Amino acid sequence: MENLNNAAELCGTAETAPSFSHSSRGEDFYTFPLSARRLSGAADTVNVIAPGRLLEGTELPAGGRFRVLGEVRSFNNRSGVGSRLVINVFARSLAPWDGEDMNRVILRGTVCKQPNFRRTPMGREICDLMLAVNRRFGRSDYLPCIAWGAGAETASLWPVGRETGIDGRLQSRVYVKQTEAGEIEKTAFEVSVSSFFEI
Question: So what's the pLDDT on residue 162?
Answer without folding.
Answer: 97
